[in-house]
Design brief:
The chain has 219 residues and is an alpha/beta fold. It is 47% helix and 15% strand. The chain has nine helices and eight strands. It has a five-stranded parallel β-sheet with strand order 2-3-1-4-8, sandwiched between helices. A hairpin with a 6-residue loop joins strand 5 and strand 6. Helix 2 packs across helix 4 and helix 4 packs parallel to helix 5. The longest helix is centred in the C-terminal third of the chain and has 15 residues. The model has no long low-confidence stretch (mean pLDDT 93).
Length: 219
């Protein structure tokens, strides 16, 4: 099974990707992980990506596509994969189609996680991180600390990351609507898109996603 996972920032793509990949017995391939792995291993693509990032420039599509291609050719992806964060725009989607066609393969489905914009802002802007340990994460609405601004685990100060400010979240949503959302229409034209609500408990969304994939006979 070869699936692309799409949705706005704050939709819970990373969390759902991990559960779905486990349930479907396929590797979860995330753009963030690809970049970190290539840069830490100092591959040629990693060095190239780092040179753009260090200069404050966007990494060109062909570099991202190259990393994705290398990863999809690994033995564990032979029977399928779940892509998270790639493709990010229509040109990357077209490149993915070409890659798969070259291997006489095709995508089985595109899972679109739907979340209202108001909820996205609430989810991300409400996050608070512990300064002592970034693994200690709280939320002003969904997982409030016992004492405002203080980590329940170690007593460290809780703060809001710059990336999580409402202004930054709205800018990220603009980028999503402009660059990534068009791939949904691109894949709808191929009859591949399954849209589900990403509201509710994590396990409920996972169950909804699995049921939707079965219902649409994605296999």
């Amino acid at each position: 099974m070869r699936i692309v996972l799409v949705g706005p920032p704050g939709a819970g793509k990373g969390t759902q990707a991990a559960f779905l990949a486990q349930n479907l017995s396929i590797p979860h391939i995330s753009t963030g992980d690809l970049f970190r792995a290539n840069i830490s291993q100092q591959t040629e693509l990693g060095k190239l990506a780092k040179s753009y990032m260090d200069a404050g420039n966007l990494v060109p599509d062909e570099v991202t596509i190259g990393m994705a291609k290398d990863r999809m050719e690994k033995p564990d992806a032979e029977n399928g994969f779940l892509l998270d964060g790639f493709p990010r725009n229509v040109s990357q989607a077209e490149a993915l189609d070409e890659m798969l066609q070259d291997e006489d393969m095709k995508l089985d489905g595109v899972l679109d996680l739907e979340v209202p914009e108001k909820e996205v802002v609430k989810r991300i802007a409400g996050r608070r991180i512990c300064r002592n340990d970034s693994a200690h994460v709280f939320h002003v609405s969904y997982k409030a600390p016992k004492q405002d601004g203080v980590c329940d685990v170690c007593g460290g100060e809780l703060y809001q990351r710059d990336d999580d400010s409402e202004e930054t979240v709205r800018k990220r949503l603009e980028v999503y609507h402009t660059q990534t959302e068009p791939i949904i229409d691109y894949y709808k034209a191929q009859g591949l898109v399954v849209t589900i609500s990403a509201l509710g408990k994590v396990e409920d969304v996972t169950a909804r996603a699995m049921e939707a994939l079965k219902r649409e006979d994605v296999a």
